[in-house]
Amino acid sequence: MDAMGRRPIAFGTDGWRAVVADDFTYENVRAVAQGVAWYVGGAEQRPLIVGHDSRYCAEQFALEAARVLIANGLHVVLLDRVAPTPAVSWTVMEQHAAGAMVITASHNSAEFNGIKYKPDFGGSAPPEVVAQIEKLAARAVDEGVRTVDADAAGGSGRLRRVDPIPAYLQQIGRMVDLAALRNSGLRILHEAMYGAGAGLMRRALDGGSTSVVELHGERNPGFGGMHPEPIDRYMPEAMHRMRDGGFDLGIANDGDADRVGIIDERGMYINQLQVMALFTLFLLEKRGLRGDIVRSITETSMIDQLGERFGVTVHEMPVGFKYIGKCMMETNALLGGEESGGFAFRGHIPERDGILAGLTMAEMIREYGMPLSAVLAHLEELVGPHAYDRHDISFPRDGYEQRKADTYRRMQENAPKAVAGSRVLRVRDDDGFKFYLDDGSWVLMRMSGTEPLMRVYAEAPSMERVQELIGALEEAAGVERREAAGAAS
To answer: Per-residue confidence at 425, pLDDT binned at 50, 70, 90?
Structure first.
C-alpha cells in the first residue's frame, strides 16, 4: 500500500478485482478508464465497447468509464443491459471495435467488483498490454482524469447504446445447431447463479420440444448469499434438483457467464477436467474435427492421452486465458480450456464462453444419442479412471503478496524429490509448482493472482490418492493442517 493506505490498481490472472467501496470506487474506475484511453490513443476511430454484469451498481460504474473514454475523444458503444462477458467480447468483433471494458468480478463473491479489458480480437489482454494499462492507471491516480457529465456524453455524438444479445445469440447459432437442440426433447436445468447468463439458455432453446428450467435467474447483486462459481459445493439446490430426476443435463454459469459447471442426469457433478476431456472427445471422435488442443497446467492429462490417440498436438500453458487464447490464435486450435470451467472453441472468440460451452454439452448428448453418464463412461474406457480435487486455502489480504513471495521462495529452495511416496520426474515452476510423478499422477500448488488464496490441485487414479498428494504438497509448502482445515475439498 502507499503512504495513504491506498492499494495500487493491479490486474491479476484476468483483470482487476477489488472490494466495492474499499478499493473498487468510482474514482479508481475512472482511473482505469483513463489508463485505457491513454493506451488506446485519442486518434483511434474505432469504438470501445463498455459492458457490465449484474453486480451492485455495475451500470453506474460502466457509465463512469464511458464518460472518461468520451472525454478523451473516443467513441463508445455502451451496452444497454446486463451481458455475459463473452457477449461483450463478441460485440467487439461484431462492432469492429478497438476493445472493451467489462465491469465484472466474474466468479468472485458479492463484495467484489472489477474490470476486464478485452483488446480488438475479443480475448483476454496479454500480459504486456495489462502491464501498460496498470502503469497508465497509476499515472491517472496521480495526475487526474478527464471526464464529462452524463448529459454531455449523450450529446457528444460519440455515444451509442446497443443491445448485444441478438447478435451474440446469432453467433451462438453458428457454433451449435440451435434448431436441432430446440427439437431434441432434452430437459435442461439452468443454474444462472443470479448472474449475467440469466435467461439466455431459455431464450436460445425456446420454441420446441426441449425444456429449460431456470434457477436464480432474477437480478440479485448479493447473489442470494451464493458464491457465484459453478462448482458442486456452491450450488446445492441445483445438485438436489438434478438428483431428484427429471432432467437430462444441468448447466450452471458463474457471475459473468464465461465459466460453466455441468451436472449429469443422475445428479453427479462432472468436474471441469472431465468436461474438457468430454469436449475433446466429442470434437475429435464424434465430429471428426482436427486441430491443436490448448489446456492450462491445471487441466487433465486425459487430454494428452486423447491427443495421442487421435493424432493432435496438446499445448500446456500457464493459468489464464491470456495465455490460452494467444496460443489458440497462433495455432488455430480446435479447443482451449482451463480447470476453472472456462472453454473456448474454434470459430468463435479466443475466450471463455460459458453459454456456448453449456449448449455444446447439450449438443454432445444429442449427437451421441445417449445419457451424459454413458458418454463419460465411454471416455473412461478410452483413458482410464481419473480422480481430481482442488483445495483453496484462504489467507488475510494484508500481507498476502509477501506470503506469496515467501512461499514460492521456500518451494524453489526445497522442492521435494518425491510426493506421498511417488518420485518426481520433472517440475514446472513458471506458474506455481507442478510436480509430474512417476505413476502418471500430478500435483500442483500456486498462489492465486486474483484472490488471497493458495490453490493445491491433484489428479490421480483414485480420490484417496488425490487427497494424499494434496496433503503432502500442503505440508511441503509449509501450510499447517489447521490452516488448511477450511479449504474446499
So the answer is: very high
**Cα dihedral across residues 406, 412, 416, 420: positive or negative:** positive
Q: How far apart are CA 84 and CA 102, in angstroms?
A: 9
For 366, phi then psi, to 5°, come to: -65, -45
103: nearest Cα among 115, 111, 91: 115
Distance CA 372, CA 81 (A): 34
Give the SS3 label for residue 283.
helix
Q: What residue spans in the chain does CATH classification 3.30.310.50 cover?
A: 387-484
Second CATH level (architecture) for the domain 387-484: 2-Layer Sandwich (3.30)
To which residue does cell 467484489 refer?
A: 112
Look at residues 263, 81, 65 and name the one whose alpha carbon lies nearest to residue 168: 81
Domain with CATH 3.40.120.10 in the chain: 11-167, 181-383
Nearest in space to 275 (alpha carbons), one of 370, 197, 362: 362
CATH superfamily of domain region 181-383: Alpha-D-Glucose-1,6-Bisphosphate, subunit A, domain 3 (3.40.120.10)
d(CA 164, CA 87): 7
pLDDT in tens, 186-226: 999 999 999 999 999 999 999 999 999 999 999 999 999 99
Residue 324 · residue 311 · CB < 8 Å: no
Contact 161, 75 (CB under 8 A): no
Q: How far is CA 311 from CA 275, 303, 305, in A?
A: 20, 12, 10
The conformation of residue 452, written as its DSSP 8-state character, comes to S
Contact in structure between 88 and 164 (CB atoms under 8 Å):
yes
Place domain 11-167 in its CATH homologous superfamily. Answer: Alpha-D-Glucose-1,6-Bisphosphate, subunit A, domain 3 (3.40.120.10)
| Cα gap 321→15, rounded to integer Å | 11
Q: What is the layout of strands, in order, in the sheet containing 112-118? A: 11-12, 15-19, 112-118, 99-103, 48-52, 76-79, 159-162
What type of residue sits at position 165?
A: I
pLDDT at 485 over 70: no
How distant is the alpha carbon of residue 414 from its chain centre? 32
Euclidean distance between CA atoms 222 and 56, whole angstroms: 8
pLDDT score of 303:
98
Q: Which residue shows C-alpha cell 434457477?
A: 215
Indicate the average pLDDT of the chain: 94
